[in-house]
Design brief:
The chain has 258 residues and is of the alpha/beta class. The chain is 34% helix and 26% strand.
Length: 258
């Protein structure tokens, strides 16, 4: 497919006197894993929040499957299949796994009562789809490790049958084993055709599962590369010394290197 599942053109965003995003272009293909990298305050999370409707852009266009759109809230982007998983997971620790997966949208019986049997059965199905190791859908989330809590957050996102999932610093507070499990989950989602964005400072993770990497610096594009045609050193050089004037798309960089 040649049409991006989501595309952003010339995105501008101000917070008072701060120019957070400057004419940023972004695209994500169906089933692609894109690493979005840059220093703190580079604009990575801001760009994704503009995409999902958590922030409203000041200028530019957002296209979903080739059609111009304006998401006024995260609920509107969720309705078309875009999910963002934040670093704090946004889970309720005093509730169990099944309840967290269906939080706020309980399956109903007779239109009145929560259909608990259906809720837990569907929660188990989602976890099996992700091939994640959570012992029971009846466990309280607060009793789970950080890695397993993240699995529940991912399961909640996947239960909406998304086309795009955005991970905001997903491995920042995970153990080595939990990180490996997360990367396996991302690879499994890719097999199922889900496009993914991973915002991360850990280039090793992006190079393990990613297809393409995009670098932001002070709210501007400073370069893109295909993972299989670059290395961590080149990406680090873009993060440190890249400029909009020398920025190349992944395809342009590949042609120049050929």
């Amino acid at each position: 497919m040649t049409t991006p599942i989501i595309e952003m053109r010339g995105i501008q965003k101000h917070f008072g006197a701060v120019h957070a995003l400057r004419n940023v272009n972004f695209s994500l293909m169906p089933g692609e894993i894109l690493g979005l990298v840059g220093d703190n305050s580079a604009g990575k999370s801001t760009l994704m929040k503009v995409m999902t409707g958590a922030y409203q852009r000041d200028d530019g266009d957002v296209l979903f499957k080739g059609a111009s759109t304006q998401f006024r809230s995260p609920q509107e982007s969720r309705d078309v299949g875009i999910e963002m998983i934040y670093q704090d997971f946004a889970l309720c620790g005093n509730m169990d796994v099944g309840q967290n997966i269906f939080l706020g949208r309980w399956p109903r019986k007779y239109g009145l009562f929560v259909d608990r049997e259906k809720m837990y059965a569907e929660a188990s199905t989602v976890l099996k789809r992700l091939k994640v190791d959570v012992n029971s859908v009846f466990q309280k989330v607060e009793s789970l490790s950080g890695g397993r809590q993240q699995s529940v957050a991912i399961a909640r996102a996947i239960s909406f049958n998304p086309r795009v999932v955005i991970f905001d610093e997903p491995t920042a507070n995970l153990s080595v084993m939990a990180t490996e499990r997360l990367l396996e989950t991302m690879a499994e989602l890719k097999k199922q055709g889900v496009a993914q964005v991973i915002i991360s400072h850990r280039l090793t993770d992006i190079f393990e599962v990613g297809d393409r990497v995009m670098v932001l610096k002070r709210g501007e594009n400073v370069g893109e590369r295909y993972v299989k045609h670059t290395n961590e050193r080149e990406v680090l050089e873009l993060i440190v010394s890249g400029t909009p004037e020398t920025a190349l798309s992944a395809d342009e960089a590949l042609k120049r290197a050929a």
